[in-house]
Amino acid sequence: EIIHLEDYQPTDFVLERVDLTFELDPLETKVEARLIFHRREGVAADRPLVLDGDELKMTGLLLDQEPIAAEDYTETGETLTIRGLPDSAPFEITVTTELSPQTNTKLMGLYRTNDVYCTQCEAEGFRRITFFPDRPDVLAVYTVNIIADKATVPLLLSNGNFLGGAGMGDGRHFAAWFDPHPKPSYLFALVAGDLGVVEDSFTTLSGREVVLKIYVEHGKEPRAAYAMDALKRSMRWDEEVFGREYDLDIFMIVAVSDFNMGAMENKGLNVFNDKYVLADPETATDQDYANIEAIIAHEYFHNWTGNRITCRDWFQLCLKEGLTVYRDHQFSADQRSRAVKRIAEVRHLKAEQFPEDGGPLAHPVRPTRYREINNFYTTTVYEKGSEVTGMIATLLGPDLFKAGMDLYFDRHDGQAVTIEDFIRCFEEASGRDLTQFSLWYHQAGTPLVSASGTYDASRQTFTLQLEQTVPPTPGQSTKQPVHIPLRFALISEDGTITEASSVSGAEVTGDVLHLVERSQSVTFEGIASRPVVSLNRGFSAPINLHFEKSSADRAQIARFETDLFARWQALNDMALDALVAATASVRAGTPVVCDQALIDALMATVSDDALEPAFRAQALALPSESDIAREIGRDNDPDAIFAARREIMTAIATAGRETFAGLFETMRSTEAFSPDAASAGRRALRNSALAYLVLAENAPTRAVEAFSAADNMTDLSQALTILVHRFPDTPEATAALESFQTRFADNALVLDKWFTVQATIPGAATLERVETLMAHPLFNGLNPNRVRALVGTFAFSNPTGFNRADGKGYRFLARQILDIDPRNPQLAARILTSMRSWRSLESGRAEHARAALSEIAAGAKLSPDVSDIVERTLKG
Ligand code: ARG
Ligand code: ZN
Questions:
Q1: Strands 140-149 and 172-183: what pairing?
Q2: Can you give the residue ranges of the Peptidase M1 membrane alanine aminopeptidase domain (predicted)?
């Protein structure tokens, strides 16, 4: 069944209040829901009340405390329809259901993780708890009573403020919670169990005292300190930058080890995948710390962008997600190095969102149809949604953007709204017409901008010819030109940035050039010498840019741009050109030659002590194998790409050997571990130097030494990865893996890393290793983190292993998807998206991929999640 945006209708009945009582039991939890409704004005008296349900066992149904006659209601698996309801007076429906949290492996609704009761309701999980109008535009005030055995379930939590609790005399106890803020059901949460806690407090700008609590498994409390610190910094930042204060007396975070996604912004009670809460130097990498900071902030920021103002329907998901990602990006940029953060964001966007937008699963940021909403929690909705928000900020400038946001918070607080409502706030605040700009929300596909420049020395003019096309995507064959804000600089021969005396052919505001036509010719006057154009500075628009440049011109940008992001982009473009050329050489059987200008530019950057180490590490991180495949676009041979990349890296390693050896020493830390960005940057640079050194030396020795010497997880896991990926099956690699496993045997999050290192060893033989690991006693097919660490990373991050020429990687995936789907459809569907680029493979592999997809499609009783993804992947 397909849901269409255009079919949106408000509910017939208005929900006023919700009263929930849970009697918790692993296999027989009783839920009583008392719901007060009234018929919406103008709705015909014969319209029934239709409530959503999913795999529910209903044990009672009352209208105003009286049983409802059998002929007055119909219950199917998915709906409860009640007829003969009062015309205008409010009435109370009482539904009792019985749940089995212990056997709920889908991790949606009420489930158990490590003996803790916990819920996940977004998007449509609440209907797995009780029959309910389970849609985001139904906002109500909730009271929640929780009853459970006191000894085994001492902690009883729900949204809002704590009302009270007491023992019940029979070994049980209860707690009551009241959330005064009207909310949709997807923000409901309940957590109950035996957990440890870290406590702190925060005083808001207006003087409200807020209790902060982070709940973790007993014994793990010290590992929640960084998350608590990140939370307090997020709260302060949202006050200072967006003027948003927290609005309850308590804010709680619970870390659980079985969770389908990253985390969930339930009102006042965020639930987190513990991977994004727990950290200490011994067990967390710098990337883990950065993720924790970003996700703690993200979920906290949802309190305003998502909770106080929510979505009218799930088509509007980007209203809260794109905007909240934009906010967490800004937060991290303020806490760390803005340029380095931007580079990481763009790398992620290109690695994850661009392939989605260019493949069978492409969809608009604001889709108009879906079969399974869980499949739309995508990088397009999140990351492209964030980029689109960022472009509004670029178009309007900081002050008008702020005015638009203020208007949005002011006007829509307490409402469930649409993208159109959001855009209107910026139009009204700025007086700008954003009609054309809005196409970014509605047209799928990454726009391609082709640019070329001509310099006229006699006239002292420079003309930039720009053309844009938005490629066709499934369901959208033709596209309109969009409004593309391109930040730019003209760099003269001496490296200075040139200002034109006048510009014609495009609106230019500050350093932003507005490309609005399909084709635009822009002339800059008063340009004294041939300039090099740096286009899309800071990645001001999420586009593909084709701008043929000599490597000398790219090197000019890499050397002189004042925008650090653009310097990195220029180096990365040079590297990409070299890698694409090298891949062609490998396939043609001719020798690979590495562009000397690339080596020189890289070495100049890496040796420049004026640049922050994190930036230099980003320069050294060449485009990935999938970046190269995407650039080539079709007929890809992952083995050739891997070989070409290895050769280019070796050429750089050989040329820069002295430099890398020097950096490996100078970047060594002499101080106690600190997770701050500057220290992390030094570790990043030192570890990239190590990777190149090991290539140049062609021996495992140095990696083995680094592994033994490491005093933090970043260095340890990097050394392990370098060793195991470069020299798999050597006694050194085997010994290191063994010692790592023994040392962290009781830490699930670190063991995930152990699985991932092995799943990502390049080469066809890794499939057999992965299959062996599936049978390892530490593998656990019920834990999403573990499944992602092994099966997910193999499929997503091991191009040569997964894309084995004999197709066995795809067949392995097909078996795994069919195995995971019945117990956890969301997880299965997510991992299956690793097949999204199958059409750009060479024909032999593509045929194998198609066969594996067809095998999945033919599976008996597929979930809507998997069947939606597999059908779109095969078709698009
Ligand atoms: N709203 C959550 C976040 O981004 C994601 C929850 C997604 N859950 C799901 N079952 N699709 O912060
Ligand atoms: Zn979110």
A1: antiparallel
A2: 226-437
Instruction: Output helix, strand, coil percentages for the chain, rounded to the nearest 5.
Output: 45, 20, 35
Q: Return phi, psi of residue 469, to 5°.
A: -135, 145
Q: Which of 253, 258, 264, 307 has most ligand 1 atoms within 8 Å of CB, for mutation?
A: 264
Sort 829 into a burial class: Cβ within 10 Å, 0-12 / 13-18 / 19+.
Answer: buried
Out of 299, 321, 383, 625, pick the active-site residue.
299
Q: How far is the CA of 313 from the centre of ligand 1 (A)?
A: 15
Helix, coil or strand: residue 398: helix
User: Over the stretch 299-338, which tens digit does the pLDDT of each residue have?
Assistant: 999 999 999 999 999 999 999 999 999 999 999 999 999 9
* 310 and 419 Cβ atoms separated by less than 8 Å: no
Q: What one-letter code names the amino acid at 803?
A: N
Length of the chain measured in residues:
876
In angstroms, the CA 566 to CA 589 distance is: 34
- The residue contributing the CA closest to ligand 1 atom 12 is 264
Which pair of tokens denotes residue 331?
Answer: 């937060």
User: Quick one: which ligand is closest to 122's CA?
Assistant: 1
Which protein residue's CA is at the shortest distance from atom 2 of ligand 1?
A: 264
Token pair belonging to 360: 């069978």
Catalytic annotation present for 299: yes
DSSP state of 27: S
Q: How far apart are CA 659 and CA 693, in angstroms?
A: 9
Nearest-CA residue for ligand 1 atom 5 is 264
pLDDT attached to residue 876: 81
Amino acid identity, residue 216? V
Q: pLDDT digit string (tens) for 218-260?
A: 999 999 999 999 999 999 999 999 999 999 999 999 999 999 9
The DSSP secondary structure of 477-524, one letter per residue, reads -------EEEEEEEE-TTSPEEPPSEEESSEEETTEEEE-SSEEEEEE
Please name which of 178, 165, 92, 159 lies closest in space to residue 121, comparing C-alpha atoms.
Answer: 159
Which listed ligand is nearest to 377 at the C-alpha?
A: 1
> 391 φ, ψ to 5°?
-70, -35
Give me Rg for the CA atoms of the chain: 28
The full DSSP string for 833-876 is: GGGTTGGGB-HHHHHHHHHHHHHHHT-TT--HHHHHHHHHHHH-
Q: Whose CA is nearest to atom 8 of ligand 1?
A: 122
Closest C-alpha residue for ligand 1 atom 1: 264
Pocket (CB within 6 angstroms of ligand 1): 122-123, 260-261, 263-265, 298-299, 321, 374, 377, 826
Q: Write down the H helix ranges in 413-500.
A: 419-430, 439-442
Instruction: Tell which atom from ligand 1 comes closest to the C-alpha of 826.
Output: 10
Ligand 1 centroid–CA 381 distance in Å is: 11
Pocket test for ligand 1, best of 106, 111, 118, 122 (most atoms within 8 A of CB): 122
> Average pLDDT of 679-684?
98
Tokens representing 558 are: 């890499």
Continuous H helices in 243-337? 286-301, 317-335
> What is the per-residue pLDDT across 690-715, written as a single tens digit (0 to 9) for each?
999 999 999 999 999 999 999 999 99
Confidence of residue 77 (pLDDT cuts 50, 70, 90): confident
CB 648 within 8 A of CB 578: yes
Edge-to-edge order in the sheet of strand 502-504:
502-504, 519-525, 461-469, 448-456, 544-546
Mean pLDDT of the chain, nearest integer:
98
